[in-house]
Amino acid sequence: MRRSPILRRLLATTLPAAMVLGSVSTTAIAEPMYGRTMSTYGLPGGIDTPTAETLPDGTLGATVSWSDYGRRSSVLFQALPGLTTVLRYSRVEGINDGRRNGYISDRSLDLRYQFLDEQGWRPAVAVGLQDFLGTGVYSGEYIVATKSVTPAIRVSAGLGWGVLAGKSRTIDSGDEGGTPNVDDWFRGGARPFASVSWQVNDRLSLVAEYSNNDYVTRYSDGQVAQQGNEPGNGLNLGAYYSFGDSYQVGLYSIGGETFGAQFSVALNPRQAPYPSGLEKAPAPVRPRPAPQADPDGWSGVWSQDPTAQPAIQTALGDAMAKEGQILESMALGPNRAEVRLRNQRYINQAEAIGRTARLMTRALPPSVETFVITSTADGVPTSSVTVRRSDIERLENTEAGQIAAASALSDAPAGAPGLVRSEGVYPRFRWAIKPYLDLGIFSAEDGLTHEVGAEARASYEIMPGLILTGALRQRAFGDIYQRGPGKGRNDGSFYGVDEYLNNPELETTPEGVPRVRSDTRMYTGNKSPVIPELTLAWYAKPTPTVYTRVTAGLLERAYGGVSTEVLWKPANSPLAFGAEVNRVRKRDFDQLFDFRDYEVTMGHVSAYYEFTQGFTAQLDVGKYLAGDKGATLTLTREFANGWRIGAYATKTDLSAEEFGEGSFDKGVTLSIPLGWASGQPSRERVQTTLRSLSRDGGAQLNVNGRLYDRVRDSHSVKLYEGWGRFWR
Fold it and tell me: pTM of the predicted model, to two decimals?
């Protein structure tokens, strides 16, 4: 039997995963050991000690802990079933770094990998690195085992190094962190730790642990700082209460001397508030009448009527509009019809294709047997799904894999014979006024900051592929204010706004690096209206597998100019290559139409690869805004419901000293579709990037409309992984 490209892709992506998961479930994993409580460091654990527990795959969590030792705010992501990552911002009490009275702000990153799950007599076992990229205030490593003694009682024991052994690492005075201190890992003498947790009922958990943490910070200049009170002993006790499946509060005692409180939240992308969604049910497939009941419809003579296609196209376009789709153009013959659709509503392109196919069965004469549904993005066709009408009629009430096997995916040419553009689609004007919220997270100087206001956004689609876009913002209130960059003075204090504006020499760091991002706060806090974006973009498709973009104007709040991009991406390939070149100039700080003197040509070449299970890898190599050269590696995971969580790291030819605090650029990206929370279908997203700081090295241009994310929704890997929603 000849298999279609879609079927071959489904077999290639799902069968290996099923075989792996099946083998694991029978040989290693009986039931995942999910964590019952979160430690003060933001991972599943005791109070201050780790366990070998995990959270459900894909969980995004946050923990805030308060005590006399300080405040720790952590963001957790269960990146893989066994890999847990934590980004943490801490206010550490009892230390004076010269800028503050009695505390420091510290950022750190943790990794934990559970390489054995509990099975039979065997405990779960994990190894972890704690604060391995920060200044090292909480630096330590561990190996730990956890075993369920009874369904309600779990016991953990392990060996810890560094802070977990009561031997905090010596920190070089002035060290700003960011470089892994590999030479210190698992060295300096190990000491044991242990904990026991009792699940009293489905809400209450009690924890007791033995810890060696002495809460001391040691510096190379001989300074020794005690964080809060010295623990009276190594015994810590805690009680935790859960509200629903996502929220938990706790109270704990450290060494009988210090008491603290904690709040945790954990969200699993697979567990939406409305798992089935609240969207309107699709129109059912309409079976064709018998040939004797509609001989003219079956014979195709209707196609000779010049009024037939306009009437059919109008009726189909109206029906698609009710489903949140736009019928951009249509080619109609006696036996074949092609529609080009713009999906405005559904996060999975397969759902838009499936609903369009059913509407075609209701609008087209019975002689039309072949349906070609071509997806578009920004007026450019991205892929075509070809399916027989008889297969749609026959397979409507079967699982989606069967219609996938009967369909074929192909590259869509820019144009096609007989295409007729729908009336009223172009030109098209859209606008909206919405509130906005800007958050500053993990800032060493400010912690959590915010700004709230209103944003008016409009777009004018002049013709297919040519789009004028603009936005206007007005601040209402917040605690984000304009200020000059820091780290330029010996004491690390900030330049004043007027001081920075009146001294052009300050626009370069003492190390000679142009301030392309470290002056970000100069663009904030404007009380007058600002224009964050005003662009004219041209999207085109010169060949069936090549896409292009040219964007000119005010590209982002800090830069304006011209951005050009080309992307090679076949519809049936998980691999893509692209290149981008930008010529930009720094905008004035009022974010209107004036520019500053700094100008640069920068860009990169890119390679993309889509793995199964929602993973995408991207490698960018090129020149960055500050003129430095290097590479950025990004790994993103997308879940079936549209959640995207990723991490990136950039290393350039700037030295750690030239880069400054952090040594190199890295961060976490998060994108949540609004439909996940509301239950209503929507392509709108809430997106943010979590980074500990903004530095000038490895800085990229934030231009909207980059091609890869525009194109991939309707291409093989992404389309097939969401194909189960074809009949939705």
Answer: 0.85
